[in-house]
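Pasting as-is:
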Amino acid sequence: MSVGHVHPGRHIVGGTALVFLAEGLLLPTGLLTAAFLTRRLGPDDYGLFVLATAIVAWIEWTVTSIFSRPTIKFVADVDDWRPVGATALRLHLVVGCGAALFLFLAADLIGLMFAEPALAGYLRLFALEIPIFALAHAHRNILIGLGSFGARALTSAGRWIVRLVLVFLLVELGLSVSGAILASIGATVIELAIGRWCIRPSLRRASFPVRDFFGFAVPLFLFAVSLRLFDKLDLFALKALGGSAADAGIYGAAQNLSVLPGVFALSFTPLLLSSLSRALRGADYRQAHQLARNSLRATLVLLPLAGLLAGAAPEIVVWIFGTEFSDSAPLLAVLGFASVALVVISTATAILTAAGKPGWTCALVGPLLPLALAGHLLLIPSLGSIGAALVTTLLAMVGALASVIAVHRIWGILPPLSTLGRSALLAFVAYGLAATWPEAGPLLLVKLTAVALCILLLFIMLKEFSRDEIALARSFLPGWFVRQRLGRGHA
């Protein structure tokens, strides 16, 4: 699908909304899945499942992140995407198979490292998903590079819906943790099938040179490894420093509930990279700078969401996971702000990648790892889980600030300080409203919706959004889904 005459700002807003809705299915389906599994498996088995999922997800996202941004950028930069797509698909498959073999062989050692021998068997089963995930992700990246955001959304929607159905079915059949893992594998197969239905890159050797990929891929690989490991280092460190499987389950539950800002980043930053690359390819530097500045501004608007999660954390945790997981509430209150900071990092590094500075991404995120490790070694023995959450959140904020400064050095743009002030103020307002309005059960959804709408109204009253932005938002309401095209055919 070609964006054609569609304005880049409108195209990315519409595409982000559509992909966010699709990835947003992770929230209802993920919460239903988590609520079901925590009650069926209990803290110990759920903790093992969380550990296995975290390890495999880190490997999968690290492997695919090697080539994700280069694929998007190169597809957006060329007229004929097929040589790029064929090279990208082959690279994803080779690296995915290698990572799966590594995990299969290292499973026993990882189980011993975490003092959980049963973990090894789950990891071997989960390893089957890695090459399938890599191929599915290659298709997603090509679709994004082409601007086929509707088709990209369809792949995610199919995955999350199928995963929910399979988890309920297989776990109810008595397969326990193995059933949940098989459900994830099955959902990834469906995602790949949808991707192949939308677009069919070849696995044959292509004319696009592999060395061009690695010129971008090596620094972005180091960036991806660093960011993914930083994101999960708190959970791994907590378990390695003496935490039980139940402790990991409680911490993992808090991480799962703090994903909403991360879903926005997953939906938005690849589309931003594609749109910026297309704007720079057309030498539309003014549009690229404006798009980059507005993107950084959009990340700050997420701060009140973290305040809302923090204020309602005790009620959210008990309603979804049950009273056994009530200790997850203070962790969620802290990790929500870390999630927003990571969105800022992801957005800023996408801008740097589009600007041809992939090496800067690694330089920004790499130092966070040794600092986080030192912080966890210092605070986890004395403060436990909350110490891990504090280290992650504070360092994520430092990384976000450094990333914004890096973008300013390259393009001379900064997010508006007025937006930062309004967002910080409304984060306190959201926290206060959520914390002082007690609700339980289904009425909690009414409370969360009401507070979110109140924050949106306050943003409008404080004139955060211009008339053009409000008009743009309204333009998507009538017949919006009808106008979205999935982009098959020449895509």
